[in-house]
Each structure stands twice: as structure tokens, then as C-alpha cells.
Amino acid sequence: MPAAARSAIELVRTASLATLVQDEIVRMLRAGELAAGAKLNELAIAGRLGVSRGPVREAFRALEESGLVRCEKNRGVFVREISAAEAAELYALRAGLDELAVRLLAPIATDVQIAELRRMVTQLDRLGPAGIDAYFPLNLAFHDRVVEMTGNGKLLITYRRVINEMHLLRRHGLTAGGGLKVSNAEHRAIVDALARRDVAAATRAAREHVTAGGARLRSAPGLPFRPEA
């Protein structure tokens, strides 16, 4: 095989492996396996996933660009800590994105889509007693599905990037101020408004849900905030 062809194949292979590594680190963040400020060990991650260190370095660079980790020269790679001020900015941005999503979805939502969202809310009710580890992934999927149903690809990409930055924060916010039961009652209000094709009620419910989530976060013990400079 010509050297150029081998190089091209190796480039694709490395890029694909880096994506897999990146996805696994994001999964660990979502699952609460990595805390804010935690140091990521390049060698340990490579060994855990059965890859060389090259794809891990590529994944670290991509995660730094997306705002999930910080790379410090001569110190290593760390899960990024978010300040209270930045958390407020992220919640404000997410509130606007969620509001836009339901504003777009309400007039076009099909009965099949509404039924799907109702099933997710019912399942969240059932998972609530099992705790945050069972509830959190489906909670993420519910909101992601609402945005996906709009059919607006750019909105979905932007939303997912913001949500990735909020993973460490949102687990704390879900467990305070009435916890999972209150959060899911807010989900149900969103779906009920979508079912009525009531744009005003849907946008209001979506914004109030995110705003309430931010308030729950601020009341949660052990807030994972980086100290302000």
C-alpha cells in the first residue's frame, strides 16, 4: 500500500478513535463519574479504552474547544470548573434555547410526538424514586428530543453544546428544591401545553422550568462552582 494511502487510513482511524474517547468522557461527565476540577489521566484513559495515547490527546483538544476541560501546561488536563457567574449565563442561554424550541415545536407537533413525550414523562415519574442516577439520562433525553423534534439542526447543535457544559451543574440542580418530582411536574406542564398547541403556554412553561432549575441549583448544598477571580 502506498505511504500516502496508509497515512490517510491512519488519520481516519485516529480521528474515529478520538471521537469514541471524547464520547466516553462526555458519558462519564453525564453519569457523574467525573467531578468538576478532576484531573484526567491520559495513560489511564488510553488503557481503559484500549487505544493509544494519540486519540486521547486529540479528544482532550476537542473537549477543550467545547469548553468541557482545560489543558494546563506541565500540569495536565482537568474537568473545567464553572463559576457562579458563568452558570447564570448558561442557564439564561439555555432558557432562551428551550423557549425557542417549544415555540417552533408547538404549532407543528404531531400526536405521535406528543405521545412519545408523555411516555418519557411517565417513565421519569417511575424512575424518580430510584434516584438521580436513573433519572438524569432520561431527563437529558427528554429535553434533547423536544429540540430534535423541531427539525432545526442548527438549534440542536447549539443546544447540545450548551447542555454539555451544564452537565456537572444540572445534576446538583435536580436534587434540590423539591427534587425530581417537582422537575418532572414542570416537564408535564410543557408537554400539556404542546399538546394544546398553545405556543404562549409552552414557551412560558419551558422558560419557567429552566429558571426554576437554576434556582434549585443555587439552593443545592455543595455547589460545584469555581471561585470568582
- Main beta-sheet strand count, sense and barrel state: 3 strands, antiparallel
Q: In percent, how much strand structure appears in the residues?
A: 5-15%
Strand neighbour order, sheet with most strands: 1-3-2
Any guess at the CATH architecture of the largest domain?
Up-down Bundle
CATH superfamily of the largest domain: GntR ligand-binding domain-like
Distance between the termini: 55 Å
Low-confidence blocks of residues: 1-12
The count of domains is 2
Secondary-structure class: mainly alpha
Q: Mind sketching the topology for me?
A:
Elements: H1 3-30, E1 39-40, H2 42-49, H3 53-65, E2 69-72, E3 76-79, E4 82-83, H4 84-105, H5 111-127, H6 132-149, H7 153-174, H8 179-195, H9 199-219, E5 225-226
Parallel strand pairs: 4-5
Antiparallel strand pairs: 1-3, 2-3
Helix pairs in contact: 1-3, 2-3, 4-6, 4-7, 4-9, 5-6, 5-8, 6-7, 7-9, 8-9
